[in-house]
Amino acid sequence: MNIVCLDMEGGLVPEIWIAFAEASGIPELKRTTRDEPDYDKLMRYRLDILREHGLGLKDVQATIATIDPLPGAKEFLDALRGEVQVLILSDTFEEFAKPLIEKLGRPTIFCNSLDVAPDGTILGHRMRCQQSKLTTVKALQSIGYETIAAGDSFNDLAMIQASKAGFLFRSTSQIKADFPQIPAYEEFDELLRAIEQAL
């Protein structure tokens, strides 16, 4: 049995933190997992900046409400889900993901959660498990699934490399250059064909 594991931000929807950086006028928040391999370090950096500027969960959610999926993303997911089980594995947070998942047609998502104070200040983040994408792929494999994975960032590489087939999708030039052995695609129809061939 096959299951496809996809990253969300950068591949299916725009990067939330980049959109918020632009909306808030804080360019330092444009740093993402494409730039920083250590996710805990990246989140501490982001939360420190939010505190410095007096920004909380509602501010980020207001920006997320304006974000739509990338053109073709929902159609790609609909076509893929017609053929195989699909699971979104994201390092985003439940508090951020819900409106985006609704716009994508409610695919199943495994993500993380935030610790939020009553006043809306984001105090910290809780990872679902260590190395959440790789851990999930290995768990799926342990119960009889063969995984096919695609993503764009450093935090996707382990799940891509551990899968029966793996692809970079809309990744950076640097990551593609560093991992030339991983097929890389830019368009949804190309990725759909590659996944179909791997099934």
Q: How would you describe what is shown here?
A:
The chain is α/β, with parallel strands linked by helices and 199 residues long. The chain is 42% helix and 21% strand. The protein has two domains: 2-13 and 70-115 and 126-198, HAD superfamily/HAD-like (Rossmann fold, 3-Layer(aba) Sandwich), CATH 3.40.50; 17-64, thrh gene product, domain 2, CATH 3.90.1470.10. It has helices spanning 16-24, 39-52, 57-64, 73-81, 94-103, 132-142, 157-162, 173-178, 188-198; strands at 2-6, 85-93, 108-116, 122-126, 146-151, 165-169, 184-185. It has a seven-stranded mixed β-sheet, with helices on both faces. Helix 5 links the parallel strand 2 (85-93) and strand 3 (108-116). The longest helix is centred in the first third of the chain and has 14 residues, at 39-52. It is globular. The relative contact order is 0.18.
